[in-house]
Specification:
Length: 99
């Protein structure tokens, strides 16, 4: 796999982290100030940390982090759970390619 393909794949993951961050942040705003809203806010911060790591990997390979993303579904928790499961599956598949 060449460097350009690796950067492309890392950017896909980077965009997923942007989307997750935005969904979690918005949902924390929409909840009353309570424990679940604080937890949702903390998860958003963790997603942003993932963005930082991916951006670092992208730039170290000569790429630029891609901030573009499709319109988001800010709906219910089910959507968030489904997205997290999908991202985990994609990460596992990508890791398998590197081995």
């Amino acid at each position: 796999m060449d460097k350009k393909e690796i950067v492309r794949m890392l950017n896909e993951d980077f965009i997923h982290e942007i989307e997750a961050s935005l969904v979690y942040v918005r949902n924390s705003f929409m909840m009353r100030d309570c424990d679940p809203s604080r937890l949702t806010e903390a998860i958003a911060v963790d997603e942003m940390r993932h963005m930082w790591w991916l951006a670092d990997l992208i730039t170290k390979r000569g790429g630029e982090p891609d901030m573009s993303h499709p319109p988001l579904e800010f709906g219910v928790l089910r959507h968030i759970i489904d997205e997290e499961k999908r991202h985990r599956k994609e990460f596992k598949e990508r890791l398998a390619k590197y081995r």
